[in-house]
Hints:
182 residues; single chain; alpha/beta; five-stranded parallel beta sheet; Barnase, Chain D
Amino acid sequence: MCRYRGGVAVWRAESESFGYDLVQNGFVAMFHSREILDETIAGFRRDGYRIVLLDSATWEHRSELHAAFASALGFPGHYGRNLDALNDCLRDVAERDLGWSGDETGLVIVIDHFDRFNDAASSTALAVLEAVADAARRGALLGNRMLCLVRADDPFLELGRIGGAEPLWNPREWVIADRTGA
């Protein structure tokens, strides 16, 4: 069952500036500072979003990545634990059939230490972000707010295009000097 919130703008710049600022250039936003990420998460929580925290530093094998997503988002027992199955389940998440309730404002998936995962398994890491971005775009088309926040220890991490757009650093860390302290 697809839950559609028809007739309502998904993101409104005038009333939800920090959320809009993060999503206006794509559904994946990057962070380096844990403090800035924590403040952003707290803002989303105050606004009624469900926050899903995933630590990719512990993902040594693909099975751990799939177990983390399945547990955090309530995937069904028959979840296939591969990228195609992840795409399928994330579509259900975008439609609000899995992972969050109808009374929550939106869903924020936070992936910490993403650079470590990317260094260990780049093609898989980028495929995961692509799947999340595709799901978030689908959610937006249905009136459901969903986005992904990626935190990296590497202040120079560049991911290339994900979901049709290059993930940008959050507005407070847009300038490299803000991420490096230089």
